[in-house]
């Protein structure tokens, strides 16, 4: 927490620290905004940048699926079942009813990414609203909302999703709404926490004094302070939603043929494990890589906005420095 | 303390009540309601009416809810629609199977995760620590059921070392060794998922404690490092870990659903999926409510343990940590 002892290193040392960029750089002409600071730290994190590049490749690849592959992912052709990879232009071969696996992977990517991002977006909206109202007004409104959050987090999410998908039918839109409806609670808690912390600040009082409306204070003055934590949370939620979608589709309660998703492909592949185990590998690998990429990005943003993270590393250096020099100096 | 216990208990009851409302409401919000769901297609409207009357489905919703809830409280979970079996007969055996699977996986992952996390906290950013963080990234990003399928392909189909699925071999029902043999693969899947989280918790909780002043004091007065770790730090570090493990119960119960489906394990999660497909709504509501009870009780116990273990925790305010 408190690392006030950090600068105790002798004057000669700090210049060598690679991550104390502020001392080695010439004075900046213009102060960086918070977004630029975030980006400059983020772009120096190899994991996060790899994650970003991989995710972009997947997004671009699945969006331009039509250009990349000439095959229709839903086209059944029983003459060409279970082709080996590479035959007749089928990059990864065909499945048990002659559909091109590579094309199916690309088109599945569209569905999975669509679900991942829209679920994150919707749950951020719901969560911010609930958290903001709850944290700002407090009192009985807060109690009611937070009890609701408790209830929502006490029902196993997967059960609720299965229940809803089984009862109402398996449409993509239902699925997105349902997944969003079961994952907004963390955002709500986070936003509420920020509000409770900040609503007594003087700038809020000042805003009230000059007659800013309640909505103005809630959304303009307070919500912005929670922006970065919300972004981190949302990023991790994208991964969670993709995993949840694949799980539901695997159980047969998600995406239905002729549409396709990675989870659905996995569920089909399990029946044909003996003939072609690789069919089970590809879609799972796609899910794994995308979720990993998203999580790396989320962690990258979190590390970039957390001033503690930098100190952790420098403390390690400090320990090393102590080991090397402490006998003579201290 | 007593006051806190009572308040916390009442809160839990309230949460449970709300959950039962949600579960009940969901089922009855279905297009056509449970009547539609449960009647065989092609049944004549008159017969449907009589059936609905027999099952009390023509009463107003609040009355139905009241009847259902009182039955639940009496321990009567209702009857399945298909063959009119008591829900309990279908449900309880699967609960036992899930508990066998989960407790096994849970104990193993805790036995690995906590010592590993502690070790890693003492050697931050070391090889073992990096490995743990790699494992946790993999565990969080990998679809558990996919890992299960891969294990099946490799260990059952290619190498033929371990059974593909189910709980027992056909001719060895109830054999404990056979059960262990069948547990290996599904447990590996579950352990990977839990390991990812628990190692991280144990490590970060230890790190936080190791930064405290009293640890520095202990070291300064010359307490050996072993004693510092195990006597001074560990006790305090385990408190948040206990809580998080308690809060994790919903994930434990829900997380087993997919694993059970992959390995054809006759547990509660798989029963839920099967029943959802068949729209056996009395079973679905019973499972939802039972899981909710387990989860809420888990949270309650975790909170109380937290209070007992750590006298520093102030539990005034509204509902302690969770509010």
Automatic annotation (TrEMBL), chain A:
<feature type="transmembrane region" description="Helical">
    <location>
        <begin position="222"/>
        <end position="244"/>
    </location>
</feature>
<feature type="transmembrane region" description="Helical">
    <location>
        <begin position="280"/>
        <end position="298"/>
    </location>
</feature>
<dbReference type="InterPro" id="IPR000515">
    <property type="entry name" value="MetI-like"/>
</dbReference>
<dbReference type="InterPro" id="IPR035906">
    <property type="entry name" value="MetI-like_sf"/>
</dbReference>
<keyword id="KW-1133">Transmembrane helix</keyword>
<dbReference type="Pfam" id="PF12911">
    <property type="entry name" value="OppC_N"/>
</dbReference>
<feature type="region of interest" description="Disordered">
    <location>
        <begin position="1"/>
        <end position="28"/>
    </location>
</feature>
<feature type="transmembrane region" description="Helical">
    <location>
        <begin position="47"/>
        <end position="68"/>
    </location>
</feature>
<dbReference type="InterPro" id="IPR025966">
    <property type="entry name" value="OppC_N"/>
</dbReference>
<dbReference type="Pfam" id="PF00528">
    <property type="entry name" value="BPD_transp_1"/>
</dbReference>
<feature type="transmembrane region" description="Helical">
    <location>
        <begin position="174"/>
        <end position="191"/>
    </location>
</feature>
<comment type="similarity">
    <text>Belongs to the binding-protein-dependent transport system permease family.</text>
</comment>
<dbReference type="InterPro" id="IPR050366">
    <property type="entry name" value="BP-dependent_transpt_permease"/>
</dbReference>
<keyword id="KW-0812">Transmembrane</keyword>
<dbReference type="GO" id="GO:0055085">
    <property type="term" value="P:transmembrane transport"/>
</dbReference>
<keyword id="KW-0813">Transport</keyword>
<keyword id="KW-0472">Membrane</keyword>
<keyword id="KW-1003">Cell membrane</keyword>
<feature type="domain" description="ABC transmembrane type-1">
    <location>
        <begin position="109"/>
        <end position="298"/>
    </location>
</feature>
<protein>
    <submittedName>
        <fullName>Dipeptide transport system permease protein DppC</fullName>
    </submittedName>
</protein>
<dbReference type="GO" id="GO:0005886">
    <property type="term" value="C:plasma membrane"/>
</dbReference>
<feature type="transmembrane region" description="Helical">
    <location>
        <begin position="113"/>
        <end position="141"/>
    </location>
</feature>
TrEMBL record, chain B:
<dbReference type="InterPro" id="IPR045621">
    <property type="entry name" value="BPD_transp_1_N"/>
</dbReference>
<keyword id="KW-0472">Membrane</keyword>
<feature type="transmembrane region" description="Helical">
    <location>
        <begin position="101"/>
        <end position="119"/>
    </location>
</feature>
<feature type="transmembrane region" description="Helical">
    <location>
        <begin position="237"/>
        <end position="263"/>
    </location>
</feature>
<dbReference type="Pfam" id="PF00528">
    <property type="entry name" value="BPD_transp_1"/>
</dbReference>
<comment type="similarity">
    <text>Belongs to the binding-protein-dependent transport system permease family.</text>
</comment>
<dbReference type="GO" id="GO:0005886">
    <property type="term" value="C:plasma membrane"/>
</dbReference>
<feature type="transmembrane region" description="Helical">
    <location>
        <begin position="175"/>
        <end position="198"/>
    </location>
</feature>
<feature type="transmembrane region" description="Helical">
    <location>
        <begin position="283"/>
        <end position="306"/>
    </location>
</feature>
<keyword id="KW-0813">Transport</keyword>
<feature type="domain" description="ABC transmembrane type-1">
    <location>
        <begin position="95"/>
        <end position="302"/>
    </location>
</feature>
<protein>
    <submittedName>
        <fullName>Oligopeptide transport system permease protein OppB</fullName>
    </submittedName>
</protein>
<keyword id="KW-0812">Transmembrane</keyword>
<dbReference type="GO" id="GO:0055085">
    <property type="term" value="P:transmembrane transport"/>
</dbReference>
<dbReference type="InterPro" id="IPR000515">
    <property type="entry name" value="MetI-like"/>
</dbReference>
<feature type="transmembrane region" description="Helical">
    <location>
        <begin position="131"/>
        <end position="155"/>
    </location>
</feature>
<dbReference type="InterPro" id="IPR035906">
    <property type="entry name" value="MetI-like_sf"/>
</dbReference>
<keyword id="KW-1003">Cell membrane</keyword>
<keyword id="KW-1133">Transmembrane helix</keyword>
<dbReference type="Pfam" id="PF19300">
    <property type="entry name" value="BPD_transp_1_N"/>
</dbReference>
């Amino acid at each position: 927490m408190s690392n006030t002892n950090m600068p105790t290193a002798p004057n000669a040392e700090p210049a060598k620290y690679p991550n104390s960029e502020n001392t080695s750089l010439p004075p900046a002409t213009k102060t960086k905004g918070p977004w630029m600071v975030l980006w400059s730290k983020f772009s120096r994190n190899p994991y996060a940048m790899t994650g970003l590049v991989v995710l972009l490749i997947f997004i671009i690849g699945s969006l331009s699926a039509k250009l990349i592959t000439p095959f229709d992912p839903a086209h059944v052709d029983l003459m060409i079942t279970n082709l080996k990879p590479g035959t007749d232009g089928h990059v990864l071969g065909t499945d048990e009813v002659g559909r091109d696996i590579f094309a199916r992977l690309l088109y599945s990517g569209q569905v999975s990414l669509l679900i991942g991002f829209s679920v994150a977006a919707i749950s951020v909206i719901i969560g911010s609203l609930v958290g903001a109202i709850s944290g700002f007004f407090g009192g009985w409104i807060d109690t009611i909302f937070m009890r609701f959050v408790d209830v929502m987090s006490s029902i196993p999410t997967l059960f609720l999703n299965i229940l809803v998908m089984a009862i109402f039918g398996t449409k993509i839109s239902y699925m997105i709404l349902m997944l969003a409806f079961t994952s907004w609670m963390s955002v709500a808690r986070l936003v509420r926490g920020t509000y409770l912390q900040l609503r007594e600040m003087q700038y809020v009082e000042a805003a009230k004094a000059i007659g800013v409306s309640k909505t103005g204070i809630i959304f303009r003055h307070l919500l912005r302070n929670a922006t970065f934590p919300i972004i981190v949370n949302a990023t991790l939620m994208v991964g969670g939603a993709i995993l949840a979608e694949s799980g539901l589709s695997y159980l047969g309660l998600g995406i239905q043929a002729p549409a396709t998703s990675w989870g659905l492909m996995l569920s089909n592949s399990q029946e044909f494990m003996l003939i072609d185990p690789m069919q089970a590998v590809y879609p799972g690998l796609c899910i794994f890589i995308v979720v990993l990429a998203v999580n790396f990005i989320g962690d990258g943003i979190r590390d970039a906005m957390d001033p503690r993270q930098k100190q952790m590393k420098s403390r390690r250096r400090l320990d090393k420095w102590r080991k090397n020099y402490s006998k003579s100096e201290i | 303390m007593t006051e806190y216990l009572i308040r916390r208990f009442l809160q839990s009851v309230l949460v449970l009540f709300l959950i039962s409302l949600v579960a009940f409401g969901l089922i009855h919000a279905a297009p056509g309601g449970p009547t539609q769901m449960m009647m065989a297609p092609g049944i004549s409207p008159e017969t449907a009416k009589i059936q609905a009357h027999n099952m009390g489905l023509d009463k107003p919703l609040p009355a139905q809810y009241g009847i259902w809830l009182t039955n639940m409280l009496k321990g009567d979970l209702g009857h399945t629609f298909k063959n009119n079996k008591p829900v309990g007969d279908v449900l309880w055996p699967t609960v036992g199977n899930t508990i066998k699977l989960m407790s096994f996986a849970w104990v193993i992952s805790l036995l690995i995760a906590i010592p590993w996390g502690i070790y890693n906290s003492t050697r931050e950013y070391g090889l073992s620590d990096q490995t743990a963080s790699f494992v946790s990234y993999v565990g969080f990003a990998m679809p558990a059921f996919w890992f299960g399928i891969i294990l099946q392909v490799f260990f059952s189909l290619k190498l033929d070392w371990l059974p593909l699925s189910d709980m027992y071999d056909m001719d060895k029902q109830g054999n404990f060794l056979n059960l262990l043999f069948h547990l290996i693969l599904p447990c590996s899947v579950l352990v990977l998922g839990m390991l990812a989280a628990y190692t991280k918790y144990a490590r970060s909780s230890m790190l936080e404690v190791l930064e405290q002043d009293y640890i520095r004091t202990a070291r300064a007065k010359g307490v050996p490092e072993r004693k510092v770790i195990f006597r001074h730090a560990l006790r305090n570090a385990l408190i948040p870990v206990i809580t998080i493990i308690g809060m994790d119960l919903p994930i434990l119960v829900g997380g087993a659903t997919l694993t059970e489906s992959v390995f054809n394990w006759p547990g509660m999660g798989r029963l839920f999926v099967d029943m959802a497909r068949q729209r056996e709504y009395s079973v679905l509501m019973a499972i939802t409510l039972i899981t909710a009870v387990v989860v809420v009780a888990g949270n309650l116990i975790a909170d109380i343990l937290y209070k007992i273990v750590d006298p520093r925790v102030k539990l005034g305010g509204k509902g302690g940590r969770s509010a």
